[in-house]
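testing teh design pipeline on a random one, pls ignore if ur not involved
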């Protein structure tokens, strides 16, 4: 994480549109398929979560209401803002006590972290023995600095990172695969159809973008809904096009030095 983050970052991630798209994705949203699949994966684990939870890189903490059974819910990010309980240190680490939490939640954060290994080691350190890490990040996705964007992951790559630092994988999944993934990527592609050096093409592309936003996005998202089985699949599945990766891992051993 970048300690020099824009001070308005936390406020931007807590605005109503950002939160609504994650808490209640709708077919008119460009990221509907990806966010609906992500929400479904988080919901599954949130329903059983108890004890103390540390939301590591929470932004606007869109999934707060799902973890109602947790007695202690700590939201932390790099800048102060609405709903932030802890501001992370300049190096991105937490400053929390070791063995303090039953659960660490990390949702769409790891791609923005300069040193993923240090981040994972910190997750391990603050978890109680046997505690769990719920971690999601991007597989194939457009670059989106928030404020920076450094990495993309495969399921196998993410599993290897976690097991190298003292975690055992409980569940590993690919999110938004194949047809659903292709539709999600198409939305991003059309949104970037621009050619300012050729004004005629540029104006034509602007019309295409508007039509796609008004009509193509909801129609294609409705098509994607017909392939609900391609929303969340096991990491060992044969599909090779996927938008996100998600892992539930348990603290079992001292990480490598």
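output:
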């Amino acid at each position: 994480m970048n300690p020099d983050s824009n001070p308005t970052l936390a406020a931007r991630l807590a605005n109503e549109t950002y939160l609504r798209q994650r808490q209640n994705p709708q077919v008119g949203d460009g990221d509907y398929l990806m966010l609906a699949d992500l929400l479904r994966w988080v919901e599954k684990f949130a329903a059983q979560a108890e004890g103390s939870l540390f939301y590591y890189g929470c932004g606007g903490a869109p999934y707060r209401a799902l973890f109602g059974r947790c007695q202690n819910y700590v939201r932390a990010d790099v800048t102060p803002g609405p709903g932030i309980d802890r501001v992370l240190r300049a190096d991105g680490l937490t400053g929390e006590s070791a063995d303090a939490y039953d659960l660490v939640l990390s949702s769409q954060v790891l791609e923005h972290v300069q040193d993923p290994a240090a981040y994972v080691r910190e997750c391990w350190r603050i978890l109680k023995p046997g505690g769990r890490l719920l971690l999601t990040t991007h597989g194939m996705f457009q670059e989106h600095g928030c404020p920076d964007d450094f990495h993309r992951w495969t399921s196998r790559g993410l599993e290897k990172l976690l097991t190298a630092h003292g975690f055992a994988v409980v569940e590993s999944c690919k999110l938004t695969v194949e047809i659903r993934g292709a539709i999600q990527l198409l939305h991003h592609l059309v949104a970037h159809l621009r050619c300012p050096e050729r004004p005629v093409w540029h104006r034509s592309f602007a019309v295409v973008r508007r039509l796609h936003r008004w009509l193509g996005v909801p129609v294609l998202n409705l098509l994607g809904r017909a392939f609900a089985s391609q929303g969340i699949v096991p990491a060992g599945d044969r599909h090779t096009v996927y938008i996100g990766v998600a892992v539930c891992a348990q603290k079992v051993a001292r990480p490598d030095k």
